[in-house]
Each structure stands twice: as C-alpha cells, then as structure tokens.
Amino acid sequence: MKMRLATAVVMMSWSLAQAASIPDFPFVFATGRSETNLPPDTARMTFDIKAFHEDSSNAVAKVTTRTAAVIDFLGRQGFGKSTLTSSELGKSEIREKKEDRELKVIGYEVTRSFELIIENLTKYDLVANTLFKMDNVSEISTSFGRKDQKEIEAKLLGTACADAKRNADAMASGFGKKIGTVHCISKQGFGNIGMAFGLGADAFDGRDMMSCMEVSDEKASLFIPATVKFQNQVSVLFTLDKK
C-alpha cells in the first residue's frame, strides 16, 4: 500500500511539472519558415593525412613528409596560411584482433586533420583531384556555402518571422480571435513547447537551420552544385486577446 501511494505521489508530481511547463494563459504557437537557393561562391574542405607503420617514428615521418607535400602544392596554388588550419598529430595503437579479442600491438596509426577554405571555386577542381590522388590523404569532405551567409541568414530570419505571424493570425482568426503580444521567440525547431522555451525540466538543444550541402564521397566531392539551399525557421508563442 505504501509503495502504491509513493508511486502515485511521484506520478502526480511529474504531471504537475509537465503541466507547469505550458503557459497558463490563452496562446497561439506558430512556426515560420523561409528558404532560398543560391549559387555557392566558397567551399570548406576537410581531410586527414594518415599513415600506419609498425614503428611509430616511421608513421610520424610519413605524415610529416606528406604534410609538407600538401602545403607546398597549396602554396603554389596561392593558398596562404590563413586559408589552411591543422590539428596536432594524433597517434593510436593498432592491435591484432582474434575473435573480438585485442592481442599484441602490430603498429601505430598517426593522423593529422586539416581544414582548407577555398574562396575561389575555379581552383576547387584542381585541389580536389590532386588531394584524391595523393597517398595517405583520406576522409576528404567538402561543404559549399557563400561569403555573405550572415546577410542571407538575416533576410531569411526576417521572412520566417513574417511567416510565423501570418500563420498565427490565420489560426486565431479561424476561431474569431486576434493574436496579442509576443510571449516567446525561438529559432530552434522543437516538438515540445515547454522544453524548447526552457519552461520544462529538460532543455532543448536545437540547431540553427542555416546550412550548406555536405558531400563526402569522391564522385560527389568533384562536383560543384549549381545552387545551395539555405533555410531558417522561427517558432513564436503569441498571447491571445481576451476580447
């Protein structure tokens, strides 16, 4: 009996917490969206230089030699230090495996990751083809975007806000009501209003809807898309007029 009572109290507390996450006044919840397709004018390429050898110093030497070759090639194409960034060397043991068991160390894998910003897309084809043909260069991935992305985002956000207001007006007028003041605004997409606005127990970790097309395989990475889709959205909580 005591166990049932304790369970009932816990479930009641949970229900009250959930109810408290929703505003206790009449409201309209609306989402606005906006998107556009524009030709890209910049690219962000990431890749790894990776080598394996039974002796770690030899693996490091391979990565160092290939890194120098890549930097030399990019320098001859006009890429300065500001366009290429790299991480520290990473090293991991490679062990012999047998029936899901790891046995003795058979060598070491050394890796260094790079990020290259290509602001002139006429150079993209040569850079991509060259890196794909180089030994020890792997995990090549490219995303295309635009230099004026922040301005595009601002325009899309304004359009999305107007779209959200139109949607809220339409819903309210359908019931003979009018929307009042704005109570909450969020750029995050979400399914639960309370969680998204931080009114519930769990916080919602959303992402900005602004994005560029990602490509990762060899065939796709050598293709520059004619356009890239940019999109944004906003979620708004309006109060409802009491009249």
Describe the structure.
The protein is α+β, with helices and mostly antiparallel strands and 243 residues long. The protein contains six helices and nine strands; from the N terminus they run αββαβββαβαβαβαβ. It has helices at residues 2-20, 56-76, 124-133, 149-174, 193-196, 218-221, and strands at 27-38, 42-53, 84-86, 90-98, 101-118, 137-145, 179-186, 214-215, 228-240. Strands 2, 3, 4, 5, 6 and 8 form a six-stranded antiparallel β-sheet that branches. The chain has a three-stranded antiparallel β-sheet with strand order 1-9-7. Strand 4 (90-98) and strand 5 form a beta hairpin. It is elongated, with a radius of gyration of 27 Å.
Helix content: 25-40%
Number of helices: 6
Report the strand count. 9
Structural class: alpha+beta
Beta-strand content bin: 35-45%
Which stretches are low in confidence, meaning pLDDT under 50 for 5 or more residues running?
A: 1-20, 201-221
Main beta sheet strand tally, sense and closure: 6 strands, antiparallel
| Overall pLDDT score | 82
Give the overall form: elongated
Give descriptors for this structure.
single chain; three-stranded antiparallel beta sheet; elongated; disordered N terminus
Please render the helix and strand layout as text.
Elements: H1 2-20, E1 27-38, E2 42-53, H2 56-76, E3 84-86, E4 90-98, E5 101-118, H3 124-133, E6 137-145, H4 149-174, E7 179-186, H5 193-196, E8 214-215, H6 218-221, E9 228-240
Antiparallel strand pairs: 1-9, 2-5, 2-6, 3-5, 4-5, 6-8, 7-9
Q: Summary?
A:
This protein has 243 residues and is α+β, with helices and mostly antiparallel strands. The protein has helices at residues 2-20, 56-76, 124-133, 149-174, 193-196, 218-221; strands at 27-38, 42-53, 84-86, 90-98, 101-118, 137-145, 179-186, 214-215, 228-240. Strands 2, 3, 4, 5, 6 and 8 form a six-stranded antiparallel sheet that branches.
